[in-house]
Amino acid sequence: MQNKTITLPKLTNLSPTMESTALKLMEETGELAQAIGKFRGLNGETVDLAEEQVVKKITEELLDVAQTAVSMMFVLEEMYGVNIDTALEEHIAKLAKKGYL
Ligand SMILES: [Mg+2]
Q: What mean pLDDT value characterizes the chain?
């Protein structure tokens, strides 16, 4: 099984909640969709950005999504007693059961 491991920080200068992180996640996924669609001209508008700039923007927005997801994991652990390590094991098992691995 090939893995991609990234480490993202807890944003200690913020006071996130489940609701604020969920809304932020939607905001960031919207920005990712914009980078993939609008900045590549899929909406019919003229594109001024070079392909390399678009891919950089897509990557930046994807990392914003990942950071927000990690922030929500901290919230679930600290405010709702969720064990993310256990949840991760269950997630991997689910993927295997579905035949994705
Ligand atoms: Mg963003």
A: 95
Q: Which domain holds residue 30?
A: 18-97
Ligand 1 centre distance from Cα of residue 99 (Å): 32
The CA-based angle 88-90-95, given to 5 degrees, is 95
Overall domain count for the chain: 1
- Is the per-residue pLDDT at 56 higher than 90? yes
Q: What are the φ and ψ backbone dihedral angles of 74, each rounded to 5 degrees?
A: -60, -40
Residue 12 inside a domain? The answer is no
- Tell whether 49 is covered by a domain: yes
Q: What proportion of the chain, given as a percentage, has pLDDT over 70?
A: 100
Q: How far is the CA of 85 from the centre of ligand 1 (A)?
A: 27
* Residue 35 falls inside a structural domain: yes
